[in-house]
Amino acid sequence: MSTSWRQRWQEGRIGFHLQHTHPALAKHWPGLAIAPGTKVLVPLCGKSLDMRWLSEAGHPVLGVELAPEAIEQFLAQSKVPVSRYTQAGFDISRQGSVELWCGDFFHLHIQEAAEIGAFYDRASLIALPPATRERYAFHLAQLIPPGAKGLLVSLAHPDHGAGPPYSVPDTEIHQLFTANFRVTLLEENSPDERGRAESVWSLTRRGPLA
């Protein structure tokens, strides 16, 4: 995963990147009633402009990304000064209220995520092959405190074995997250010309892991 992901960024094969804020974020985030000032975790963040939107909405952002190319491209989009430091094995770049942690999301531990109070996943889950998605859902639950909310944008398409982006149907969303989150479907779009249909979910962290 790590080698192929870096290669995608180095070769510019990032068709998953949007040149604008994802419409589902602006539409559904306010309904979660997450207080301004709440720090938002964005796993596998790439150079997503959604992090700018969250920052402008009053949220400190902690984005985790494996590819340094993605982080540098995000930082280059703004003239705001950047500070850089290392913590817990991650190379961290801070620009305004956005912190970008360069490294493996699975190496981010609760000590580093102590201030996290919400999360946003637009292209994380669907970037992972089936064998890794269960690990991702469990690790996310470990980092999110009870009662915290998040927004998940998923994708289903006919070619279930192909990706990324991989197809993650509604049934799998429930299988992955229901044990540790209250899962609510907010929106399900009709398939596009390629048979791809996005779905938007609200996730609220249940009590502590057993």
TrEMBL record:
Its EC number is 2.1.1.67. Coiled coil: none annotated. The keyword Transferase applies. S-adenosyl-L-methionine binds at residues 9, 44, 65, 122. GO terms for molecular function: thiopurine S-methyltransferase activity. It is found in: Cytoplasm. It comes from the Bacteria. It is an enzyme of class 2 (transferase). GO terms for cellular component: cytoplasm. It catalyses: S-adenosyl-L-methionine + a thiopurine = S-adenosyl-L-homocysteine + a thiopurine S-methylether. GO terms for biological process: methylation. Its main location: cytoplasm. The keyword Lipid metabolism does not apply. Belongs to the class I-like SAM-binding methyltransferase superfamily. TPMT family. This is Thiopurine S-methyltransferase. The gene is tpm.
